[in-house]
């Protein structure tokens, strides 16, 4: 796809003056060191992976891998366990992305003010961002620990002992998914906050002041001035967060490993097990492809809806 | 409070906005909140405003507690002796703080070797990533064309695919090359994996360097290469460092590829080894687990704190521009 660009570039409006033809060659020379590895170890495997979804590839077997057409897909359609995990993945992705965005927006608005503890909040916001996901998972296991954890102890202290006493949040059938969702929100909030905070810099200050002088209250100013300016970034952040969350692995792997009874088995955990515990490479690739397909459709609908909303204004 | 202060503020904060694409130049207070200050502080404090402020501080404190408490709990657990850890009523402050958990952690798992593996993989892949990405980032920043659009598109797309779709073929390819369960294989994956992001950040940093500086050097008779080496490279250096450190942190923290690609215990990286502390369900040895987790997170935390502003600046440069 990129190969066509070189000859055409010289017909583009010449912004770089006379040195252009020589630079073209030089440009290719400069691009190759990064382009080759990306093509060989990123684009290539991706296409290979899509191909694998149509085969019966398995690890450690002697017969040749065969092309099986859509067999994996018809299997997948009937695989209720996979669709369970798919549903869990969607609940998880929505459950994390929406509160994450709202909380991050609130924090960003606060940090945009001139409050005294701002520096501390900014410093703290770095912690979840810089931590390995594995450590975040371990850390929250310590928080949720039925006996030695701070959560149950805090609930006891608040007089909610009936609710908190010795409860194992991560092993309860009803509590496991909400418990991991809280961790997901915590882990991804800082990055969203920082991005939104940067977006707030683009809010026209003059408009804000004018609205303020016209007697617009805080909510009104947010709705008419801040939000329209912030919306593009907010939209991009939400969409990306949704994809990342839907595809996440390490956090839940460490927290529950998909348990109890598959209640937190995200699609990635399912596909990982299928590929590297049971060796079903082809089938796992099919799962990956199904994840891509559904995410793309969801995103397209979401983005189309949002863009249409813009036109209506 | 005074008029001069607010004008000064508005000038300062409008400059980076005008520049738009640039990663935050050193010393430019990009995130100053003069906007709100100028509009609100002119008014006198009224009871209603005081109440608003109180509400804002209450909210901020709530956020601080939410952000900090798991981490504080990790700290607390790491320094508790076993007796306190098995207590049914855990306390925030260890009554008899001890380093025993750290000793235990090193005794139970090969933490030093694992840290060495992580260090090697992260450092080599970060270095290779910026070496490979810098020339292309230069081209992407200076020539706007389909290539740069395709590359930007690829950055976004590559973030969106579930890793399982990439890791299975990678596993098979690396197996064919006898590079499964090999540090070289893992480093190759890390390099390619961090390339899109390195390109994204570095392109922003290059764009922030005024093209005129290079043209001036060219007018003075400096060749292309000479200009790059003596004019562009020094200005790019801080961005290179930030990008390399970010790639380092990402690889240091990475779990999924390392889990799949490395089988021999002596080759595994720190995040993978950490999971070995989590034995069968519920029987984890909490003290050493917390101690090891704390140690594993320190390098990335310190590095990230050092370069956080540059990273967000670089990321946003890409985001705003594209």
Automatic annotation (TrEMBL), chain A:
<feature type="transmembrane region" description="Helical">
    <location>
        <begin position="169"/>
        <end position="189"/>
    </location>
</feature>
<keyword id="KW-1003">Cell membrane</keyword>
<feature type="domain" description="ABC transmembrane type-1">
    <location>
        <begin position="86"/>
        <end position="302"/>
    </location>
</feature>
<comment type="similarity">
    <text>Belongs to the binding-protein-dependent transport system permease family.</text>
</comment>
<feature type="transmembrane region" description="Helical">
    <location>
        <begin position="123"/>
        <end position="143"/>
    </location>
</feature>
<dbReference type="InterPro" id="IPR000515">
    <property type="entry name" value="MetI-like"/>
</dbReference>
<feature type="transmembrane region" description="Helical">
    <location>
        <begin position="90"/>
        <end position="111"/>
    </location>
</feature>
<dbReference type="InterPro" id="IPR051393">
    <property type="entry name" value="ABC_transporter_permease"/>
</dbReference>
<keyword id="KW-1133">Transmembrane helix</keyword>
<feature type="transmembrane region" description="Helical">
    <location>
        <begin position="281"/>
        <end position="304"/>
    </location>
</feature>
<dbReference type="Pfam" id="PF00528">
    <property type="entry name" value="BPD_transp_1"/>
</dbReference>
<dbReference type="InterPro" id="IPR035906">
    <property type="entry name" value="MetI-like_sf"/>
</dbReference>
<feature type="transmembrane region" description="Helical">
    <location>
        <begin position="27"/>
        <end position="50"/>
    </location>
</feature>
<protein>
    <submittedName>
        <fullName>Sugar ABC transporter permease</fullName>
    </submittedName>
</protein>
<keyword id="KW-0812">Transmembrane</keyword>
<keyword id="KW-0813">Transport</keyword>
<feature type="transmembrane region" description="Helical">
    <location>
        <begin position="233"/>
        <end position="255"/>
    </location>
</feature>
<keyword id="KW-0472">Membrane</keyword>
TrEMBL record, chain B:
<dbReference type="InterPro" id="IPR000515">
    <property type="entry name" value="MetI-like"/>
</dbReference>
<feature type="domain" description="ABC transmembrane type-1">
    <location>
        <begin position="115"/>
        <end position="307"/>
    </location>
</feature>
<feature type="compositionally biased region" description="Low complexity">
    <location>
        <begin position="25"/>
        <end position="38"/>
    </location>
</feature>
<feature type="compositionally biased region" description="Polar residues">
    <location>
        <begin position="1"/>
        <end position="13"/>
    </location>
</feature>
<dbReference type="InterPro" id="IPR035906">
    <property type="entry name" value="MetI-like_sf"/>
</dbReference>
<keyword id="KW-0472">Membrane</keyword>
<dbReference type="InterPro" id="IPR050901">
    <property type="entry name" value="BP-dep_ABC_trans_perm"/>
</dbReference>
<dbReference type="Pfam" id="PF00528">
    <property type="entry name" value="BPD_transp_1"/>
</dbReference>
<feature type="transmembrane region" description="Helical">
    <location>
        <begin position="57"/>
        <end position="79"/>
    </location>
</feature>
<protein>
    <submittedName>
        <fullName>Carbohydrate ABC transporter permease</fullName>
    </submittedName>
</protein>
<feature type="transmembrane region" description="Helical">
    <location>
        <begin position="227"/>
        <end position="252"/>
    </location>
</feature>
<feature type="transmembrane region" description="Helical">
    <location>
        <begin position="119"/>
        <end position="141"/>
    </location>
</feature>
<keyword id="KW-1003">Cell membrane</keyword>
<feature type="transmembrane region" description="Helical">
    <location>
        <begin position="153"/>
        <end position="174"/>
    </location>
</feature>
<feature type="transmembrane region" description="Helical">
    <location>
        <begin position="186"/>
        <end position="206"/>
    </location>
</feature>
<comment type="similarity">
    <text>Belongs to the binding-protein-dependent transport system permease family.</text>
</comment>
<keyword id="KW-0812">Transmembrane</keyword>
<keyword id="KW-1133">Transmembrane helix</keyword>
<feature type="compositionally biased region" description="Basic residues">
    <location>
        <begin position="39"/>
        <end position="51"/>
    </location>
</feature>
<feature type="transmembrane region" description="Helical">
    <location>
        <begin position="286"/>
        <end position="307"/>
    </location>
</feature>
<feature type="region of interest" description="Disordered">
    <location>
        <begin position="1"/>
        <end position="51"/>
    </location>
</feature>
<keyword id="KW-0813">Transport</keyword>
